[in-house]
Amino acid sequence: MKRGIFLFTLVTGIGLVKAQQPLSRPDENRFTKVVLQQKLEEPMQFQILADGKVLYAERKGKLKLYDPVKKKMDVIAEFAVSREYVSKSGQREEGEDGLQGVILHPDYVKNHWIYVFYSAKNASVNRLSRFTWTGGKLNMATEKKMLDVIVQREECCHVGGGMVFDKDKNLLLSTGDNTFSRSSDGFTPIDERPGEAPRDAQKSSGNTNDLRGKILRIHPEPDGSYTIPEGNLFPKGTPKTRPEIYTMGNRNPWRLTVDSKTNWLYWGEVGPDGSNASDLRGPRSYDEFNLAKQAGNYGWPYFNGKEGYRYYNFATKESGAWYDPQRPVNNSPNNTGLNVLPPVIHPLIWYPYAASSEFPEMGSGGRSAVGGPIFHQDDFQGANHVFPAYYEGKWLITDWVRGWILAVTLDKDGNYVSMERFLPNLTLKGPIDMKFGPDGSLYVLEYGNGYFRDNPEAELIKIEYNGGNRKPSVLVSANKTAGAVPLKIQLSSVGTKDADGDALKYDWKISRAGVLKQSSTKENPEIALNSPGIYKATLTVTDPSGAKNSKSLEIIAGNEAPKVKFNFTQGNSSFYFPGNTIRYSVTVTDKEDGSLTNKRILPSAVSVSINYLSEGYDMTVVAQKQNTFDASAQHELAKGLIRKSDCSACHALNTKSLGPSFTQVAFKYKGSNTAQNFLVKKIANGGSGVWGDAMMPPHSTMPSSEISAIVKYILSLGNKQASQKSLPVTGTYVTKVPANATNKGSFIFRAAYKDRGANSAPAQLGEDIIILKNPTIPVNNADLSAELTFNDDHSIATSGKAGAYLLIKNIDLSGLKSLSINPGAETASGNIEVRIGAVDGKLIGTAALSDGNVVSTTIVPTAGRQNLYLVFTQRGLKIKEFTWNNR
Asked: How far is CA 381 from CA 34, 384, 440, 762, in A?
């Protein structure tokens, strides 16, 4: 531990060393995610007290307090809040209003003031109030109503609600534009027709005399009132303006943060839903991350990103002039403020649904910019988990949909320099607020993936940094985890390591029903189990400082797992050829149950399935699937694709969220022959109108095979789910690629048998999976290469010298007659040799390349599985892909 502290001082405490040695990015394993509280109910914003307690607001009206010592959450107040609006059709709909935020006064320890921003139940206002809170239940009688933001509740959306105090103890409050924008086709909502004010953001964001679509800056006074600090956008007394306005032209500004060194204001800004630009309307939509060094106009609804819109007449459908960033003009009949607005300030960072050329680290897909804190070590003197100096001055930002945290580097003038992923292996579930606590840890409130509902994954977490001695990481495995007694097991600790390089002590304990049966201090001991039962083998590893970590695995003694084998008696077992017939037979033997051969195991007890999976799946995952008896592999993989995408942000299985439930979609298109292709295009291109005005973002970077698999799964929900009918244990199968599927997928042959258990030991599953891949193999799918260089997208390999090679491991050469090689580009003339077993192994074919044309070579008949080498006989030969032929 002393060593860790000394190194930390050496790097951060001595200016000379810090200046001469660039700071290195800390190892990811120095950070630990700690879950504090789970299953929250629409959490919105939180504050951390000096003693580590966390005060947070839930949209439905509850104010809660988490106690880290008691590890429990208590409700300290419940506000009566408005959460609905009445849509244009007269329907009452869930909206974004509610309890939006809570913040402590900088002098809370002395004055016990907290500030709450909430949507009043019986008035069309979003209200900022001050309360006095000394712990325990909040005394609602202490409320002092400070500021009302008048809103319309005819249409959703955009409330804002972020709050922060600056160095001068001014309170900054963000408000949304309170505008329904989904009827604007993803462009600017400036509908000036009579009765359409809820769809005109010129009434709010572009209105200098309105508090909506702004960041307000006020100075709270002891009597519960407020004064106006110097430096706001409009001096007090300016006609047709509100002096509280610090920034205007905001659409839905989220989590605010103030740099403790510069007093500059930072925030995330949620943008509109348009996917494509239009010469008649304006740019595609962007979310933004913004910086305000002083008061200013950030452009909405006339600008988004760094681009301007054109005036658009919703009555005549005619476009007018482009808006001028130096002199935007608001002539809306819904405007009560100035007509000529301040010049527009462009965002610091902006990004669309698609991948951003300016900021590629942000990825693509759905988006909802949230914001986050600026880190300074000096703010956490004496804290236990303060982040390292590498993050000094960086802005940590997050996105509600995409779930990453990015560390943004700025120069001394606040200009963008670069960004990088913070903890690349961490993906958050609807992060909605993020800030550092007094212990130096980064706290994150996760709303979960779905609008207007209590998401089971909603939680409060913190990310701790450990700059000293780290716990060892432990991996355990065994050569087998089940078998008949006496059962010999080789335990393994391979993969166990210590990030600090410390020597480790190993302690294995093998127990049954909580009773210790054996122990060992070897790294990889062999054990013998002579009595049936379920055992737990636990490895505890300890470093010299006493830091320890453990991991266990379960071993079942007394019942041998069945041996299942899928045998091909006709056809190749590595590749499929469309329309070919495969003859197969399945064998099953089980030490306790018998076998198919002696008829003690009935064929009806064996599950046999053959499925076609489109391209884009991880076949390693398929091959390693366990305990999937009678399950559909396609559906399981589709669910995994949904989990890793942004689909869950707007859709749930059976309940409506921002979009329809998957089940609703399934029943809407039930029986349709065109639904598959229609929905694949819909997801890829995005759009709205089928289920209302909500815009679905495009997913242009998602592989079509993945979209197709998701759609197939969704549509299947409209059918009555029945167990998959098993195929016979001996039979034939024609490898016919399904209609509407690409010919680049794989056929999955699976046989499985679950035994009956024995000797009080539970049943065991045995299975065998054979994957028949497409016979065309891209060069980047080879297992190994030597002396080859690749182009930028890794699609073409070029030999650097004679003897360069590609290795493809363990392929079945049975029945393969020839091999075609596609160079993919102009190539040097020369031979590629096809060899088996070794780079100088048996030669079974030679292909002569020239002029970039596809060439073929006959293959010497070869049976069984082999390691195959494609050997380049000289420098400059190219290859893009190669294809096996069985004719």
From this structure: 22, 9, 9, 56
